[in-house]
Amino acid sequence: MADAASEETLDNLLREDREFPPDPAFTAQAVGTADLYDQADADRETFWADQARERLTWSTDFTQTLDWSEAPFAKWYADGRLNAAYNCVDRHVEAGHGDRVALHFVGEPGDTRDITYAELLDQVKRAANVLLESGVSKGDRVAIYLPMVPEAVVAMLACARIGAPHSVVFGGFSADALRSRIADAEAKVVITADGGFRRGKPSGLKPAVDEAVADSPSVLKVLVVKRTEQDVAWNDDKDVWWHEALEAASAEHTAEPMEAEHPLFILYTSGTTGKPKGILHTTGGYLTQAAYTNAVVHDVHPESDVYWCSADVGWVTGHTYIVYGPLANGATQVLYEGTPDTPHQGRWWEIIEKYKVSIFYTAPTAIRTCMKWGKDIPEKFDLSSLRVLGSVGEPINPEAWVWYRQVIGGGKTPVVDTWWQTETGAIMISALPGVTALKPGSAQIAVPGISVDVVDEQGNSVDNGHGGYLIIDKPWPSMLRGIWGDPERFKETYWSRFEGIYFAGDGAKKDEQGNIWVLGRVDDVMNVSGHRLSTTEIESALVSHPKVAEAAVVGATDATTGQAVCAFVILRGDAVQEADEPGEGEDLVAELRNHVAKEIGAIAKPRQILVVAELPKTRSGKIMRRLLRDVAENREVGDVTTLADSSVMDLIQQGLAKPA
Ligand code: WT7
Q1: 635: how many CB neighbours lie within 10 A of its CB?
Q2: Distance from CA of residue 398 to its chain's centroid?
Q3: Which atom of ligand 1 is nearest to the CA of 316?
Q4: Which of 337, 370, 418, 586 could form a disulfide with 427 if both were Cys (CB 3.0 to 4.6 A apart)?
Q5: Distance CA 276, CA 467 (A)
Q6: Backbone phi, then psi, for 362, in 5-degree steps?
Q7: From the CB of 504, is ligand 1 less than 6 Å away?
Q8: What is the CB neighbour count within 10 angstroms for residue 289?
Q9: CA 200 to ligand 1 center in whole angstroms
């Protein structure tokens, strides 16, 4: 499975023997404790029942913790009832914490807003009433396409409050991507904004919504947040200003308890086929594991910490570790709209200094970018408030881990590398700060209550020191409950490789101590800057361009973004001649890159597009991406004996050697 390149990286990694034992002073105050492992091992279900009751407020207690009788469709806490928004907001106000800041919002242009839990409650109640007035009832879906503004959090919680599953679509996705997600979930309402601020300028969102909604018969209303004050086209039948509607709405709303298995949200993610999968999460189990992991892995003390997760709410990290986990725990957090280098490369560190952020959770790609900018930038700021650092989204190389701890964490903070997925809903593998001796580069071990393993082709557990497939062999509370509208695809995608066992799609190795080192995907899924992209989806986008006959896409190792999208395309007859004209080749490449951005979104733009005469295929017609990856990574091309025509690789390489 793992190819030569990743084997080599891994061997280097496994020579990594630095270890950072917990500081006793940290351990003395840590939320997570070593005996959580014993409790969970003694009786997993009782452990999860305790977590659910300890961390959440239920309006009806449950009598059965797990029902696995219809596996792989799990039911957790099924006869219990609770409301996720009540748990994230109301109960903190009722407990006397209404004046606590929930969100320190920092807009990219420098505007700021502090929103207390009492203010958040007022907004969520009004927004819930607006949704009800717009024709949304319990069970109806709402699409959310917003920049990183407090209204995104309010919108998600308002949906949860009335039991309308939200489908958040990342603001960087195109009109086409939004349209297909609206259609798949048959969303009744879209919540958007005129635009958001990105890299120093307003960037419009409403035009993409207008384009998508024109072809979306399910959409009754579009609620529009005013953020950038850009001019927007207006459809009087459907469009409603968010601020006007909220102001006019009643501030009274009682949260209705939902069944624990009531759908909370759908979040689309890339799979190995062209069509994104709507990953379904439900209420009780998801919220339990979100709150629990945020508490024990990030070591959140809500009364004293300032927490910041730099993800976008459009990804699962934003769902679980901006909205549901920290708010269920009553934490105070920073919400930042923009990019780390606007208007200067110290923007993040300036925010940490200003708000005395104590817990920071980000992605390896961001850390590597900051390393590239140099340590003198963070060193200009007082980062001494930081006491826990976290990493998520892709493997973090030991150099980046050590830099993160030294330069950002002042050489003293624990750094937790957390492995999980959109499908798992919450953190599955991570060290516990204050408990685990930390090994840079390894996600280490399953959190208490979770059972993972590395297995061989036959599904047998491998010994320490060996590699294989990363699997999860016991159901967990925040597990996906299915793929929206496609139960067969759910079983087939996750539960068929190894009978009755969840296969995550990642390769991994266990070291001599049993620590897990995640290698990356073993399927046709790429990880670019922690964003999941499907090779097939980008290939379909390329082939939908009139000049492209065939396309193959691979993820090539990239020092900053982890992987980068590299495309190989075969042009149609007329286009070939055109591309041969002087200077035309570059134009064509630019045109194709923009086409991918239009079809999927700017994040999917290939770093490189190589025009080739042939693609390497096996006799059964399967593209051998392994060989293309060798080319993209400037390596000697591997074994070509299974190719239908072994001269193809020579042709590709000769073509590339030709001056442009
Ligand atoms: C894929 C899931 C989890 C939220 C962000 C991504 C990779 C994630 C790690 C990590 C190594 C990681 C895996 C996984 N991944 N975290 N700590 N170490 N790899 O969620 O978009 O669903 O992607 O991201 O390959 O399968 P996602």
Answers
A1: 14
A2: 22
A3: 4
A4: 418
A5: 29
A6: -145, -170
A7: yes
A8: 31
A9: 29
ω into residue 326 within 30 of 0, thus cis? no
Distance in angstroms (rounded) separating the CA atoms of residues 129 and 234: 23
Tokens 């979770």 belong to: 450
Distance (Å) of CA 410 to CA 386, 418, 523: 8, 21, 38
Q: What distance in Å separates the CA atoms of residue 248 and residue 245, rounded to the nearest whole number?
A: 5
422 lines ligand 1 (CB under 6 A): yes
**Residue 610, CA distances (Å) to 105, 459, 539, 602 in order:** 43, 38, 13, 19
Ligand 1 pocket: which of 265, 421, 521, 523 to mutate (most atoms within 8 A of CB): 421
Confidence of residue 2 (pLDDT cuts 50, 70, 90): very low
Q: 411: which 2 tokens?
A: 């050489």
- Ligand 1, atom 7, residue with closest C-alpha: 394
pLDDT in tens, 483-522: 999 999 999 999 999 999 999 899 999 999 999 999 888 8
Question: Two tokens at 198?
Answer: 């990105």
Averaged pLDDT for residues 606-633? 87
What one-character DSSP code corresponds to residue 603? G
pLDDT tens digits, 272-330: 777 889 999 999 999 999 999 999 999 999 999 999 999 999 999 999 999 999 999 99
Locate tokens 């396309």: which residue?
A: 551
Location of each CATH 3.40.50.12780 domain in the chain: 24-509
Q: How far does residue 350's CA lie from ligand 1's centre (Å)?
A: 28
Of residues 573, 517, 510, the one with CA closest to residue 546? 573
Q: Which fold has domain 529-657?
A: GMP Synthetase; Chain A, domain 3 (3.30.300)
Mean pLDDT, range 212-224, rounded to an integer: 97
Alpha-carbon gap, residue 192 to 152, rounded angstroms:
9
Q: Is the CB of 443 under 6 A from ligand 1?
A: yes
ipTM above 0.90, yes or no: yes
The CATH fold of domain 24-509: Rossmann fold (3.40.50)
pTM value?
A: 0.91
């903070």: which residue's tokens? 413
Stretch(es) of the chain classified as CATH 3.30.300.30: 529-657
Please tell me if the CB atom of residue 393 comes closer than 6 angstroms to any atom of ligand 1.
Answer: yes
Specify the 3-state DSSP secondary structure of 111: coil
